[in-house]
Design brief:
Strand content: 15-25%
Number of strands: 17
Pfam families: DUF8211
Shape: globular
Distance between the termini: 121 Å
Structural class: alpha+beta
Largest sheet: 6 strands, mixed
Mean pLDDT: 80
Number of helices: 7
Domain DUF8211: 288-425
InterPro entries: DUF8211 (IPR058524)
Helix content: 10-25%
Order of helices and strands: HEEEEHHEEEEEEEHEEHEEEHHE
Protein name: DUF8211 domain-containing protein
Low-confidence stretches: 32-68, 431-437
Radius of gyration: 38 Å
Organism: Rhizophagus irregularis
Length: 437
């Protein structure tokens, strides 16, 4: 006798002879008396069943929405590139963001409120003319995404459009670039909200490089300088070029219009108590020369500290040729004396180790240019000569001078006369005030 784990049902027989029902039987859907459907909408049933246990009333519970917004609301937004171009400008320093041959700049728009009732459209301002300006739609669960989400989608749009950074590098540095952009927003707001007239600047961008490719990522701050078309009946428009820097009192502007917006630059001088006070004069060569003269006559010394290399030194203005005739090539009015070199490492051991590595690297770079004559050997004098040529301090006993090349005497055959200059010259202030090495 064989055993079997399956049960064989004879469907040819009448359903009355067995208790099984076929699902495909038409009589199953028609005969509901065997399986009655409960009346959910009935409100006359008791709250207790036959066993006496309470039954919960689920009729008052609303359906749970899986999204924060109704499904028929479109919270998508657009992101596209917008190209800018700057001409007639010296593209160095902060203005390097306008140079398109050596590097590419990308400034991300961040909004904290809807500009209009239309669909949100974020733009990435760039000087890369190979980028496509076709907008791409991105979806969001919020009507106004926060800054982190806007930057994330902006970086996603950038990485999907460029062709030089591989996917591995994108994943490695995505979080770092996003965090640095978020930090840049905080820095910009902190600087612009300050109420003072100091000319301290904060960059709106940071540098990022991969192999031979250089990028400038930043937060878009428009120049907003009013440009008027002279002689034409065209209404004035606002400049939309990105600003490389911001200052206190909400001062910002592009490299072309910054000094048109704020022509009266403010310089700060020390009063008798040693505090910096604003000196409201036009910042031109005359003012700068008089300011340098005041710092020379008072023997003001400036302490310079580098947190990157952990060193510090002093600098002050001196006059080397105030009591003798001038010679060709020796017409500089002032020199800057560098001395009092000190190592000031960070109390943090890890930071101090990095500072030491950077300082030793700078020493190798400068001392590698040491000039040794044939048959001679390297010595302290040759090292000091190389350091002086490179304007580099590395010993406490070391000092050197460097001329201020933009302030010169006009004539070299005669002793300078004050009436020939529109600023004060130190030639007639005697030996007591003359500071030499």
């Amino acid at each position: 006798m064989t055993s079997s784990n399956s049960i064989v049902i004879d469907w040819s027989s009448s359903s009355s002879t067995h208790s099984f029902i076929r699902i495909d039987d038409p009589s199953f859907s028609q005969n509901n008396s065997l399986y009655p459907t409960p009346d959910i909408d009935s409100r006359t049933s008791l709250n207790n069943n036959n066993d006496g246990y309470p039954i919960k009333d689920f009729s008052s519970i609303s359906s749970i929405s899986l999204t924060t917004t109704p499904p028929n609301v479109d919270n998508s937004f657009l992101i596209s590139f917008k190209k800018f171009h700057v001409t007639r400008i010296h593209k160095a320093g902060y203005n390097k963001i306008y140079e398109f041959r050596r590097s590419k700049s990308f400034f991300f728009e961040i909004v904290d409120h809807h500009l209009d009732t239309n669909q949100l459209h974020l733009r990435i301002h760039t000087n890369d003319y190979l980028m496509s300006t076709t907008p791409i739609k991105y979806h969001s669960t919020s009507a106004l995404p926060n800054a982190k989400y806007q930057i994330s989608k902006g970086l996603q749009h950038f990485f999907s459009s460029q062709k030089v950074i591989p996917r591995r590098i994108q994943k490695k540095y995505f979080d770092m670039i996003r965090q640095k952009l978020l930090d840049r927003i905080t820095f910009i707001k902190s600087r612009e909200s300050k109420i003072n007239n100091k000319n301290t600047t904060t960059k709106t961008f940071f540098n990022f490089s991969y192999k031979r490719y250089r990028f400038h990522f930043g937060i878009f701050i428009p120049c907003d300088h009013k440009i008027e078309a002279k002689g034409l009946s065209i209404p004035p428009r606002l400049c939309e070029i990105p600003s490389p820097i911001v200052m206190s009192d909400n001062r910002h502007g592009c490299g072309l219009h910054f000094f048109h917006k704020y022509p009266a630059a403010i310089a700060f001088v020390r009063n008798e108590h040693g505090d910096f006070t604003p000196k409201n004069q036009r910042h031109n060569k005359q003012f700068h020369a008089n300011l340098t003269f005041d710092r020379w006559i008072t023997k003001e010394s400036k302490s310079i500290f580098s947190s990157r290399t952990g060193i510090s030194y002093n600098s002050r203005y001196i006059v080397c040729n105030s009591n003798r005739k001038l010679r060709p090539g020796r017409t500089h009015i002032y020199h800057k004396l560098m001395n009092n070199f000190q190592l000031s490492p960070s109390p943090n051991s890890r930071t101090a180790k990095k500072q030491q590595i950077r300082f030793e690297r700078s020493c190798r770079r400068i001392l590698s240019q040491e000039v040794i004559k044939p048959g001679a050997v390297s010595s302290t004098s040759t090292k000091l000569a190389a350091a002086k040529k490179g304007r580099f301090l590395f010993l406490p006993s070391q000092k050197f001078t460097t001329p201020l090349k933009h302030l010169r005497y006009k004539k070299t055959v005669d002793i300078p006369i004050q009436k020939d200059y529109n600023f004060t010259i130190p030639h007639y202030f005697g030996v007591n005030t003359n500071t030499t090495i």
